[in-house]
Structures are given as structure tokens and as C-alpha cells.
Amino acid sequence: MMDVDMQEGSESVPLLDIALRQSLDSRDSMDSSEGKIYDLRAIGPVYDDKDGGRPVEAAESCENDEYKSVEVDEEDAFAKDPFVPFNELPEEENWVLTFRAVFIGLCCGAIVNASNVYLGLKSGWTFGANLFGAIAGFAIIKSFSTMFAENFPILGGAFGPRENNIVQTAAMASGGLSNVFVSAYPALYQLGLMNTPEEDFWRIVSLTAVGGYFGFFFATPLRKFFIIYVARELRLVFPSASATALTIRSMHDAVRGASIGKMKMKAMGIAFSSAMIIRVVSQYALGILWEWHFFWWFHVWGHYRTVAIAVENWGWFVQFTPAFIGSGMLVGLNVSISFFAGSVIAWGIIGPLLVHYEVAFGKLRQPEEYGVVNFASFSPPFSSKETPSPRYWLLWPGVLAMITISFTELLLQWRIIFFAFKAASKGVGKGIYKLGSKLGKDFSFLRKATEQETRDLVEDPAEDTELPQMWMWGPGLIVTIIAMCIVMSVQYEMPLGMSLLSIFLAFFFSFLAIQCTGVTDITPLTAASKASQIILGGATKGEHWTIEHSQRLNLLGGALANMGANQSTDLTADFRTGFLLRTPPIQQWLAQGVGTLVAVFVAPVMFRLFMKAYPCIIRMDDECPFTYPSVAAWRAVAIAVTDPTFPIPPSSAYFSVAFAVFGSFMVLLKQYAWRGKLEWMKAYHPNMMCIALAFVLPQTYYGTAMVIGALISHFWQKKKPKHYETFGYAIAAGFIAGEGIGGVINAVFQVVGIDGDKYGSTIACPISC
């Protein structure tokens, strides 16, 4: 997932910003803040529904005191206590787990899942399905409820916020598990540790199933713990989940919601269709519709030929990628400029200096007379410490910095983590006390130690009959753990001890990831995955296994921790949304189970499709439309902790340590230096994680596209804040999902032989296009 640091400074104070303020206030009160400044755009649209369902232009000229008073009441209620469920919700039937809600949610999640495989292989960035599913589900089912009669089978009937929550829940579950398909699995193939995606398809499905359902069953009892038991004590607001709940409530407002919801969906639909069409059509005219190589044009025209081709060789051109223009709109100027600055530092300064002083080397493309050089080659001998390419040399400082920055940010929350484990021990003690009471044992010494202060209590709106019972999830969790050991042993030859260690790491980092997401809205998958790889790398030392076997176990163990942390965090956050909307948890749980089943098959199918369409990803060919930065990071860690020859260029190793120390220092500087009167500096402090990511990603045009999107969003918000609040997220989400689905269609075209490589034009393209 994206690890982002957001920009503040919006002229209006949107309704959903309260969720973020509650989260930030909680960290300040515990003196354990990461010091992050968030912009609501990171988690989705800004909805305060001030327009009464009318066109924004008209609404901006109107002043309606009734609407204002309602908004103030809504804001005040949530701001005063974000741990009380919403009260004024439309009446609905008790059973909201309908076929239409689950089916539409699964479709929305599958779209996001497929899109994430494409975007993750391109850039390493993936996106959640919560708000996309909520908005799209609202528009589609709302139209069903008005188009068909009340008693029309399946499609007809009233539609309320709880059923909308079921749509979003199914979308979130079915949109998950894609992260390992843009990181661990491709790394296994690049290192030659598995056969082919076609031969290994069912092996991949089985491993994904046990990892996904481990997260599903593990998250079930954690609802009571994180959403009810310790939520107020640890201030676990889950900003994105709270934002989703507020969004759903606003769209179902009897006076204003329907019209605004329809406007959002119309904007999202237009953006989605436009992005998908331009991604598909542009492959037939890349140099005109998709990429503008200004410096190549200067070179061909004979102006500044030497300088122009040098700039072109380092990848400095513009790509009109809707997904990353949309990403820039969401994450704001700080993240976008940091990412772009990282590209400038890595591929505009350090890379050319490495080549100039013959520390790194480029590969001359044919024909040689054009002077086109590839500085991003991973093919031999450019992936060795003797003659590295700039990409290989820069890979190591980027990966090490991402790991250390992620751990530094995690450790800055040590107080919250301590309180979480303290609360967990109370929960265990409380359970032992209750069990002892039932068995007639006196465990009174535990009673006082496990008592919870009255002010920390959160009332659960769900009845006991509406909760998933232990007999539902307990056996499932046990069976899943046993199945994990069997799958890892039979299919991957992992010893039982290593399997149990991997499962323990998955437990530990899932718990940690949920807690961190509840406070910061950032899931520390980088820290969880890389820590698992490092621990497993240490466990394989001295076992006298082959390097290949050690690397296989390393990547698979990290993949299990990744899947467990990812899925359990997403599903626990869904329970937070359902808590606010008073959705019966058992119905959410069933939707999550079906959604996880869909994700188990959708993600492997998409992975198999892309590997068949673009085998260059596995072969690490120089000419490949995908740069797979997450794959490179996972592969690098696996090699570093298992290869006894230490394949890192010495100069790169020294710089890696220095850069990692600098990155951690910058995180600490932001945390401790910008306080009091200097608090405003945090909005301008560079995001070191994004800068480090740019070292791993040789495509500079992603940063350029994000800056374009961030500037559009910035000035749009300043010029017409209400207009932006209504349409901003919808358009950005449409761009992201639309390009992702366009990429899936292109992969299908590639397989059937009607792609741009065969029928497209190379006008205005360099030879590398």
C-alpha cells in the first residue's frame, strides 16, 4: 500500500476531516505521534454535502441555514465522540446481506484487484476498494431500487446505508490480496525458484487461499478487541474506515444525499471510461497519445543533439498516465513533489555522476548510431557488483532506506504499541477470569488487573446474536493454520518449524498492522514484510540448505506475513465502518468470507494473464513496459540475507547505509523539531519514503504525472472548494481504476495478438518506445 505523508492547507474544513483530526489528536495525547500531517484526499473524497443535491455552481451561491445547522450537528456529534455509532439512519430491514449488494461489491472489488495488479507491477503502488465500492455501489443499487418495484426479485426493494456497507465490505475483501502478486510471487520467478505461472497456478491459488483466509479468520475476534474493547483507550479511529462510513451516511441523507451520490458516480464513470479508452487506444500511437519525448524530438531535429539524447536516455519525458495524475490528485503536493524530487536526485544527479566516474555503466542500444543507452538494465553483466547499471547500484540504497524509514516511523509509535499489548494482556486476563468463573475456579487476582475504566468503555451496537460466534471462526482459524503448514511442506518443502515461525510472524505483524492503521491510517506492510524476510533469513543460516531453497522459503514466509497483515487489517477496518453504521457484524463477516474467496482466484488469474502477456517481467528483459519496483525490493532483500557472496557494489553499500541513516534522521527531525511555532513546517517536510521509492523506480514520468495531478487538485480546491469536494475523489478514483482495467484489456490484446506492438505506429517515438 501507499505509504504517504499528506499536505494540509485546504481552505474549507470538510466533514470527513474530523476523522483525521480525531486520529491525530489521539496520537498527540499519547505523546507518540509520527508527526504526520494528513490531507483528507489521501483517504478519499471530501463530502460535507453542503449543496443540497443541487448543482454545485447553484449551491455555492445559496445560503441555507437549515442545511448548515444539520452539518454542524453532524460534525459536532462525531467530533465530540467518534466511538458512538450513528443514530439518525434510515430504517432498513434487519437482513441487509442481499444478493445484489454482494454481487455488486464483488464486481467493484474485482475491478480494483485487477487494476492493482497492473498498477503495482508498473509502480509498486496499490489502492483500496472501500470508497470506490461505496460510491459505485450506491449509484448502481440506488438505480435498481428506483427502476424496479419494491417486490421485484433480487434487484428491487429499498436501499439503505447498511446494505451500502455490505457492498463496500464485499468490495474491500474481493479487492485484497493483490499486493503479493506485485512483489513476492514475481520475485520467486525472477530468481528461478518456481516453474511457470501456468504450471504453478493451483500452487499459487492454494497458498493465496490459506494466507487470505488466515487474515479473514484472524480478523474476526479482533473486531471486539480493536473496535470495542480498546478503541477509546488507544483512540483507534481508523480514519479511512470512518471516512467511508460518513460518506455512506451522507449519500443516504433523505434530503440531499441521492443527488450528490449520483453526481459523484457520473463523474467517476466519465473519468473511468476516459482513462480506460485512452489506455487501450494509446498503445497504437504511443508517441502521440501516451508519451511525449521532447528531448528525442530535439535530438532528431538536430537541436542540442548531445544534451537532448543524454536527457532522453535517463528517461526524462512526459507520460499522460491517468492513474498517476489521479494519484497526485489524491495524495497532494507534498507526496507528489517528494516523489518527483527523489527521481531528480536519483536519475538526474546521482545516476549521471555514477556513469561519469565509471562507477556504474549503461547498455548501448542498437542501432548504435542513435546513441540510445539503457541505464536501467538488470541483465548480466549489469546486475553484478563489478559492472552494475545505475538502476542496480541505486536499488540497494532505495530498499535499505525504505526499510529503515518504515521501522523508524513504526518505532516512533512505541507508546501506542506498548498500550496495545498492555490492553491485549488485559483482554487475555479477562478471558481467563471468565473461564475460571465458569469452571468454579477463583482467579480474583486477575479481576482488578483487567478492570477497564468506565470512560474507556465503548458500547457495542450489535446484539450477541448478530456477532460471529467462536464456533464459526475458531475451527476455521485452526484448520487454516494446519492447511498452511501442509501447503508449505508439501508444495514448497518448508520444514514445520519454519512454517510455524512464518505463522507466528503473520500473527504478530497482523496485530501490529491493525493497530497502526487504526491510529495513522497507514498499514506498515513494508516493515512487516521486510522484517519477516530478515528474521527468516537469519533462521535459514546454518541449515546447510542451498541458496535457492533458502531464498524460496524467505520469500514465501514474507508473503504469508504480507497476506495476513493486509487482509486482516482491511477486514478489521471494515468492521469499524459497520460499527458506525450499525451493520450486523455477522452479515459483514459473511460478505468478507465470500469476498476473500473471490480475491483468492481473481488475483492469481490477473497475475497469470500479465505474466503470459508480458514474460519480460519474469525474464527481467531490458525492453519491458513494467518496472516492478516492489518485486525488485523483495528480490533484493531475499538475495542480501541468503547470498554469502554479498552481491552489492561496495560503493553502493556505503551509500546505502548513509542514505538510510539520513532518511531516519529526517523522520526524527519531523517528529521532534517541528513543534510549537514550527508546527507549520511539517506540511513542507519531504516525505522520505517517497524519495527512497524513486531510487527503486527508474521511470521519472510517474513523479511528473503525480505533480501534474497534485497541481490540478491544489488549484481546483482553492478556486472552487465545494466543487472539488463533490467531484475530486470521484474523478481521481475513476482515473486510477480506469487505467488499471485498460491495462488488463491491453494484456488480453497482447495474448491474442492484436496489440500495439503488432499494429501500432511508432511515430514520434524513440527506438526504446
UniProtKB/TrEMBL annotation:
Report which superkingdom the organism of origin falls in: Eukaryota
Q: What keywords were assigned to this record?
A: Membrane, Transmembrane, Transmembrane helix, Transport
- Per UniProt, what is the membrane topology? Multi-pass membrane protein
Q: Any idea which GO molecular function terms this record carries?
A: oligopeptide transmembrane transporter activity
Which Pfam families did the record assign? OPT (PF03169)
Q: Which InterPro entries match?
A: OPT, YSL-like
GO CC list: fungal-type vacuole membrane
Principal localisation: membrane
Q: Does the record's keyword annotation contain Transmembrane helix?
A: yes
Per UniProt, subcellular location reads as: Membrane
- Residue intervals passing through the bilayer: 95-119, 131-149, 201-220, 269-290, 330-350, 393-412, 470-490, 496-514, 589-611, 652-669, 690-715, 727-749
State the family named in the UniProt similarity comment for this chain.
Belongs to the oligopeptide OPT transporter family.
Q: What name is this protein filed under? A: Oligopeptide transporter
